[in-house]
Design goal:
Helices cover 0% and strands 44% of the residues. With 78 residues, it is mainly beta. Strand 5 and strand 6 form a beta hairpin.
């Protein structure tokens, strides 16, 4: 199971849980994502990225040119 916690200044933390067979879409657009980030996250696009579980690990798919950071370091597209 994958757990994602969204933390932001002035917002309540949100936690999302997913099974390996679920595709995880992350962005600000409530209609298209299952992890929805606050509108105040202006550096995040409406459909920012996606996580897919394949061959025993999660793979990151970027949807645009905006970078993705994990623990302060930029993540490469897989």
């Amino acid at each position: 199971m994958l757990k994602i916690r969204v933390r932001g200044k002035g917002t309540t933390d949100q936690e999302y849980c997913f099974y390996e067979d679920e595709e995880v879409r992350i962005g600000r657009d409530r209609r298209r994502n299952n992890v929805v980030l606050p509108e105040s996250f202006t550096m995040v696009s409406g459909e920012h990225c996606m996580l897919r579980f394949r061959l025993g690990r999660y793979r990151l798919l970027l949807n645009g040119v905006a970078p993705v950071y994990l623990d302060g370091e930029e993540v490469e597209n897989d």
